[in-house]
Design brief:
Length: 387
C-alpha cells in the first residue's frame, strides 16, 4: 500500500486546480465552467469514457482497471459554491462578488481529479471506478437528481463513497462512524395571522409580532423539554419578517427555520410538535397560523461494510491513530445521503486543520490536505478492487 508521500508529487498541480476553482465559484446547477474544467482535465489524463450533462451539469468518468473483471465503485465530489461574500483575503479569493467556495467543494474536486490522474496512469485494480462530479449539493437536490436519472444503473455502480473536509480536525486525520453520520434536513414556515393597526393603539389589534415571538420561545422546549438528551434534535428559527414601518402593527408575520434529526422517530415527532406548539401559542393570543413543513434531505447513513472498507483504507494510508472510526455524528446535512440510499457505501471526513468553519466567509480549503485526500481515494479503490 501507499504512503502519503506517494501523492505529494501531485500537490502543486492539484493546488493550482483548486485555487482556479476557488477564484471562479458557481452556484447550484449552474456550474458550467467548473464542469467544463473537470471534463477537460479528465480527458488529459487519458480517460476516454467521460459523460457530461447528467443532472444538468454533472460529470461522470469511468476508469477501467487492468486487473481483470470486477465491480464498479463510485467516488463522488461536489462542485457548487455558496452565495457568500468572501472575506478570507487570500491571493486566490473569489473573483465573483457574492459567490465563494465556503464549503471546500473546490478542494473536493481537486482531490478527486488528483486521484483520477493517478488511477488512470496505474490502473492497478480490477473492475472500474466511476468518478462522480455532482452539481447542486448546497441546494440539496443534485445527488437526488443524479440518482433519479439512473446514475447507479447507467454506470453499473455497486458501491458509492464520499469525502468531506472537516475544519477543526488536524491535517492527516480521518473520521467516520457506522450508521447515522449526518443529520436529516427539514425546513418549516409559519405564517402568524393577527389583526393589524396603528402601533400607538396595540389594544385594538391582535399583534402577530408578539405571538410570533412567543412561538419562537416556545419552540425551544421542543428540544429542551420534549426530547430526550440521547435523541439529537436541532430546531432553529432563522427567518422573521413583519412590518416595514415603525408605526405599523402588521396583519401577519412570516417566520421559518430548519430542523435536524438523526432518527425517523425524532423527525416525525419534531414535525408534529412544532405545529402543535405554534398553533397552541397563537390560539392563546387570539392569532392563527398557517404551517408548512418540508422534508429535504434524508439521514446520511453509512453502511457497515462500507464504513469498514473506508476506515481500512484510511488506516492503511495514515495509521490507526489518525483514523477515528467512532466520531460523533454531525447535525449538518449532506445530499450524498441520496446516493447512500441507492447503493451501499460511506462518507468519511478529512481534516482541514484549524481553519474557519464551513459556510464562514473567512473559510478556505487547506491545500495541505490534498495529498491525504488523493491518497485516500486511491487506497480505497485498490482496497476494494484489489487486483
Amino acid at each position: 500500500m501507499h504512503s502519503v508521500d506517494t501523492f505529494r508529487r501531485l500537490q502543486d498541480e492539484a493546488t493550482q486546480w483548486r485555487r482556479y476553482l476557488h477564484q471562479n465559484p458557481e452556484l447550484g446547477y449552474e456550474v458550467y465552467n467548473t464542469a467544463k474544467f473537470v471534463a477537460e482535465k479528465l480527458a488529459t489524463f487519458g480517460i476516454n469514457h467521460i459523460e457530461t450533462g447528467i443532472a444538468e451539469t454533472g460529470v461522470v468518468a469511468l476508469i477501467q482497471g487492468e486487473g481483470g473483471e470486477g465491480p464498479t465503485i463510485g467516488l463522488r465530489a461536489d462542485m457548487d459554491a455558496l452565495p457568500i461574500i468572501e472575506t478570507s483575503n487570500k491571493a486566490w479569493s473569489s473573483r465573483i462578488s457574492g459567490k465563494m467556495h465556503a464549503c471546500g467543494h473546490d478542494g473536493h474536486n481537486a482531490m478527486l481529479l488528483g486521484a483520477a490522474k493517478h488511477l488512470a496512469s496505474t490502473r492497478n485494480f480490477k473492475g472500474s471506478v466511476a468518478l462522480i462530479f455532482q452539481p447542486a449539493e448546497e441546494d440539496g437536490r443534485g445527488a437526488q437528481k443524479m440518482v433519479q436519472e439512473g446514475l447507479m444503473e447507467r454506470f453499473n455502480i455497486s458501491q458509492v463513497y464520499g469525502m468531506h473536509n472537516s475544519p477543526g480536525t488536524d491535517i492527516g486525520q480521518f473520521a467516520i462512524r457506522d450508521g447515522g453520520m449526518m443529520a436529516a434536513l427539514d425546513e418549516f414556515d409559519i405564517i402568524v395571522k393577527g389583526r393589524g393597526g396603528h402601533a400607538a393603539s396595540p389594544h385594538r389589534t391582535v399583534d402577530p409580532v408578539v405571538a410570533a415571538a412567543q412561538i419562537i420561545v416556545a419552540l425551544q422546549t421542543v428540544v429542551s423539554r420534549n426530547t430526550a438528551l440521547t435523541d439529537a434534535l436541532v430546531v432553529s428559527v432563522t427567518k422573521f419578517t413583519a412590518s416595514q414601518a415603525y408605526n405599523v402593527i402588521a396583519d401577519h408575520v412570516e417566520m421559518g427555520g430548519t430542523v435536524r434529526s438523526l432518527t425517523s422517530a425524532v423527525r416525525d415527532f419534531a414535525e408534529q410538535q412544532i405545529r402543535l406548539c405554534a398553533e397552541g401559542v397563537a390560539r392563546g393570543l387570539g392569532a392563527q397560523i398557517t404551517f408548512r413543513y418540508r422534508r429535504l434531505e434524508p439521514l446520511t447513513f453509512n453502511h457497515k461494510a462500507g464504513t469498514h472498507l473506508a476506515i481500512t483504507a484510511a488506516r492503511s494510508l495514515v495509521g490507526n491513530d489518525a483514523a477515528n472510526d467512532n466520531v460523533n455524528p454531525s447535525m449538518g446535512s449532506e445530499d450524498f445521503a441520496y446516493m447512500l440510499e441507492a447503493r451501499p457505501g460511506a462518507i468519511i471526513l478529512l481534516g482541514n486543520g484549524s481553519t474557519p468553519g464551513l459556510h464562514n466567509p473567512a473559510y478556505d480549503f487547506n491545500d495541505e490536505a490534498i495529498p491525504y485526500g488523493v491518497g485516500y481515494w486511491v487506497t480505497l479503490v485498490e482496497t476494494i478492487l484489489a487486483a
